[in-house]
Design goal:
It catalyses: D-glucose 6-phosphate + NADP(+) = 6-phospho-D-glucono-1,5-lactone + NADPH + H(+). The protein contains 14 helices and 17 strands. Helix 1 packs across helix 2. The protein starts with 14 loop residues before the first strand and ends in a 22-residue tail after the last helix. The structure holds NADPH dihydro-nicotinamide-adenine-dinucleotide phosphate (NDP) and the ligand O=C1O[C@H](COP(=O)(O)O)[C@@H](O)[C@H](O)[C@H]1O. The site of NADPH dihydro-nicotinamide-adenine-dinucleotide phosphate has 19 residues, from helix 1.
Length: about 525
């Protein structure tokens, strides 16, 4: 490593990156743009190659044209068809094959050897599976059968979520993959772990003397994690109707954020130390004992026709490739308890949904009231202190405190101390996929989920899914463009709490909006 290079800017070693599913949505919107950003920032070694793999026929020129359009549309760096882009595109090749056909892999092997020779790549190979999970086992098997493995360098398998459909299918999948790859060669992506502010949770907690002493059930009243989306299911109705919000977001992104908030400080910042602490949280989640417990603590919803910002929005059941009688949840909210010394009795409220009013991911830590409120009887009720971590799309943190209203004799009002990171860094903050591809290529598995984390998360989620399967009532309905079923608000009200308003999209109004 060069002296002035930090780990963050360290170049990846020379390698071939295989994108299985290269004609798909994820590759187009996230992966190719991420590779281009890494290239532009000098984080990719010069001796790299990318091989796109899918069934559709493509000439090399057509494939490079696809890459160009994907970057133009979705990358934070813009490009033109100039010399610089041509030089980049020369590193890309395409291979049409069916994952289930081993002969295609043998041809891929020949193509790879030629590429490695051309770019002087020392046999390092990263296989990114941007595919439906049903194909993960076949790819692993055929990579081995087709002679693609043990090429003299390292080999890594990067797998998209969802990892399975439930614990049982995840175990089967894991077994298939583990016949070919070792656990330390498997990088299970949860792109929320690649987000700047999710990684920042760790720093906010463990690098600030005034948060960590308060980070427990003696001082925290509840924690609210919201992941709201304005989009519906778009073109992914076929997949989503089978998965639903619980499997699509709950089992992975929501529980991963919860682990980052709730974990104990690791003694060292090594990948396994952090992952050990995270899995302890997942194992401490209080399982819902039966269907009644699920009903008491979990709300599921599905959007019906509604509107947002003057635009009429269709019902979920009328979306493309969705069963018109579907009972799939597009929203879920749960009251979760982490049964350990630190968190006993503190409810974590987690919610996510499609077609909510704003696109936002926020974590709100609500602190308990003052032990002896000397301001009782004053005109204004003391508001609880809040620490809010804004993950997405605005990034930052704010702290809400009580202060004397300027100029008044005794009036107290809440005041927000706001740090808006995205206002400062703007669009140049790296995308989650950039960080994660960079990490995987450098062999850093910290922000990837280990098998025991995945399994524990499924164990927790399976009980909810099973209770829903047996419950004929189906999901509550909420109008598209609203904040979800009112039952979710009632659940907090039972505990004497309410949802804190999340930051809107109004960027001009972010800093002091709590005071309005
Ligand atoms: N899209 C997103 O925003 C996100 C996606 N994911 C996950 O990423 C994965 C991919 O998703 P997405 O890109 O949306 O899916 P798409 O359906 O858009 O793409 C699937 C890809 O798989 C290829 N494919 C399908 N069957 C075969 C086969 N038998 N042999 C070779 N290639 C095949 C398709 O190409 P062809 O038809 O040419 O063969 C296509 O390139 C999924 O696991 C999904 O859950 C996770 C988070 C977000
Ligand atoms: O994994 C997924 O995440 C996206 C939301 O990701 P974000 O980074 O845009 O917040 C979600 O739309 C999709 O359904 C899900 O599969």
């Amino acid at each position: 490593m060069a002296e002035n290079q930090s780990l963050e800017t360290l170049q990846t070693p020379g390698a071939v990156f295989f994108i299985f599913g290269a004609t798909g949505d994820l590759a187009k919107r996230k992966l190719f743009p991420a590779i281009y950003s890494l290239y532009r920032e000098g984080k990719l070694a010069e001796n790299f190659a990318v091989v796109g793999v899918a069934r559709r026929p493509r000439t090399q020129d057509e494939f490079r044209e696809d890459i160009f359009h994907s970057i133009q549309e979705f990358c934070r760096y813009k490009t033109e068809k100039n010399e610089e882009f041509q030089a980049f595109a020369q590193h890309f090749e395409y291979k049409s094959l069916d994952i289930n056909n081993v002969d295609g892999f043998r041809e891929l092997h020949e193509q790879t050897l030629a590429l490695e020779e051309k770019f002087h790549i020392p046999g390092n190979r990263m296989f990114y599976l941007a595919l439906a999970p049903e194909l993960f086992g076949s790819v692993s098997f055929n990579l081995k059968e087709g002679g693609m493995l043990d090429a003299g360098g390292w080999q890594r398998l990067v797998i998209e979520k969802p990892f399975g459909y439930d614990l049982k299918s995840a175990e089967e999948l894991n077994e298939q993959i583990r016949q070919v790859f070792k656990e330390e060669e498997i990088y299970r992506i949860d792109h929320y772990l690649g987000k700047e502010m999710v990684q920042n949770i760790e720093v906010i907690r463990f690098a600030n003397a005034f948060f960590e002493p308060l980070w427990n059930n003696k001082h925290i009243a509840n924690i609210q994690i919201t992941l709201g989306e304005t989009v519906g299911v778009e073109e992914r109705g076929g997949y989503y109707d089978h998965a639903g919000a619980l499997r699509d977001m709950g089992q992975n992104h929501m529980l991963q954020m919860l682990t980052m908030v709730a974990m104990e400080p690791p003694s060292r910042l090594l990948p396994e130390d952090i992952r050990d602490e995270k899995v302890k949280v997942l194992r401490s989640l209080r399982p819902y004992a039966n269907g009644d417990e699920v009903k008491k603590n979990v709300v599921r919803g599905q959007y019906v026709q509604g509107s947002s910002r003057g635009r009429d929005l269709p019902a979920y059941r009328d979306e493309d490739k969705v069963d018109p009688n579907s009972n799939t949840e597009t929203y879920f909210m749960a009251r979760v308890f982490v049964d350990n010394f630190r968190w006993a009795g503190v409810p974590f409220y987690i919610r996510t949904g499609k077609r909510l009013p704003v696109k936002t991911t926020e974590i709100v830590v609500e602190f308990q009231g003052m032990p002896n409120n000397v301001y009782l009887g004053q005109k204004h009720k003391l508001e609880p202190n809040l620490l809010v971590i804004r993950v997405n799309p605005m990034e930052g943190i704010y702290v809400k405190i009580n202060a004397k209203k300027p100029g008044s004799e005794s009036e107290i009002e809440p005041l927000a101390m706001d740090f808006c990171q995205s206002c400062m860094v703007g669009i140049n903050s790296p995308e989650a996929y950039e960080r994660l591809l960079h990490d995987a290529a450098r062999g850093d598995s910290t922000y990837f989920t280990r098998w025991d984390e995945v399994a524990s998360a499924w164990s927790f989620v399976d009980r909810i899914a099973e209770a829903w399967r047996q419950d004929a009532e189906g999901p509550c309905h909420y109008p598209a463009g609203s904040w979800g079923p009112k039952e979710a608000d009632q659940l907090l009200a039972e505990d004497g709490f309410h949802w804190w308003p999340v930051n809107g999209q109004d960027e001009d109004n972010v800093v002091w909006q709590l005071n309005k």
